[in-house]
Design a protein that fits this description.
There is one protein chain. The protein is an alpha+beta fold and 341 residues long. The chain has 3 domains: 1-147, Arc Repressor Mutant, subunit A; 148-235, Winged helix-like DNA-binding domain superfamily/Winged helix DNA-binding domain (Arc Repressor Mutant, subunit A, Orthogonal Bundle); 240-339, no CATH class. It has helices spanning 18-23, 31-43, 58-65, 72-80, 127-130, 151-161, 173-179, 190-207, 240-250, 254-266, 271-282, 290-297, 300-310, 315-318, 324-335; strands at 13-17, 53-57, 86-90, 93-100, 103-110, 116-122, 138-142, 169-172, 210-218, 224-233. Strands 2-6-5 form a 3-stranded antiparallel beta sheet. A hairpin with a 5-residue loop joins strand 9 (210-218) and strand 10 (224-233). It is globular and about 70 Å long. The relative contact order is 0.10.
Amino acid sequence: MSDNYIVLNNYHVIEKSKSLIQLDQYAELGEAQYILLDMYMSQINPRDKGTKEVSFPKTDYEVYKEVKRVKPAALDKELQALMIPVKLPDPSDEKSFRIKPLFKECSCLKKEDGNYWITMICEEEMYDYFFDISKIGYIRYRLGMMRNLNLSARLLYNELHSHKYIKPYMIPLDRLKIIMKLTSKSYEDTKEVMRIVRKSVNDINENTNLLVSFKKQNDGNHKLVAINFTVNINAEKVDEDLALYIAELIDVNYDDAVPVAKAAQSNNLSDTEIKERIEHIKSKTNVKNIVGYSVRIMDNEFWEKIKGVEKEEDPLENDKEKNKDLLSEIEDLYMSEVEES
């Protein structure tokens, strides 16, 4: 698999709002549009509307799709589809909707470096779908996770990830077909639907951070009416792209970076949070085992302790005697535990 990107990286984090996931069921978008949306979301900061304009080389898009070249006419159609108004559900009433375009500009222009760059600018009235997402809920995944998922598997992943705490999560068959865009006549045969579901679940388990199982639910006449999904985070699966990213950050080999990547995954850290913590480690001259310490500092509770001790006006400093055990523990973690691997 080629990873010769200029701007994008497989480890880039995507934070996708539940409003956009709900939009999947209404928008007539194809696989190319979902790839472009992922690339866009991997570059914005969903907490800063000032990042609404994103540019990346056309070659990055081609690398992700694993094709030598996307012809201008094909790219024109793929980008135009993102400019077409889409039906937006109204959360207050299931029968109400609005029709708005997702983006106010999508372009592909030649830059001074000789490369053609794709630029995407979010429509202002769509900010609620891309920004301030903590208010409406979101899922988090890495750009590289989706590369080997087809459209149906991508859409099922989004739906299951956003409902992973409901066990089991029951989806009626008719609704599942809409979610996965299995609406043509060929999918009137439930055997064909189940074939796609099985393949999608296998691809999700193999390529992403989810571990999915399912059971069919039949009615009294043994007719398939729903599927019950059970979803867990696959903590044992190493995010290879993340491990490579960490290996580069702390200048170690891939195998040494794997336990750090696992720790970061289990604490659901973004690449920005990981980089912040590793930069913190590099600022310390007394860390003798950077791998061991990197594993420890990926733990959110440990990180909060470290930040607390280093604050100039920390309450711990106001009562050192009362908090001496905690201060001693953190000092030990700095000085001695990092020597153990």
